[in-house]
Amino acid sequence: MFRTLDVVMIALMTAAATVTYSIKHQADSKLEEVRKLDAEIKLEEDTIDLLKADWALLTQPNRLNRLVKIFENDLKLVPTESTQLARPNELPMPTAELPALPEDKVAKTSKPASGTDAIQTGSVAR
Asked: Which helix (H) or strand (E) holds 49?
């Protein structure tokens, strides 16, 4: 009744239907995963926006001035002098990143005698 070709064709159609279903199932699961990730990203973006708004409220100059006045005796805050600020070129660099000194300046520099002198010589001359 059935020919060999008919049996082979039925097997091929069944295999193709199985492969098509498994691919569709994998695509649906990946789509669900993408939707979950999109929801997580949206939640994180909303959280970041909320934190930025909180930061803007907390750092309002009027609020900070009011807090400084309230806690002035406890904190003993004073205005920052312009001489307290350092330029980036005045900051100490790691030893590996220090530029090489010319030969005439190497002879003039000497090793500090004690540990406290080493801390004081770490400042950069202007």
From this structure: helix 4-58
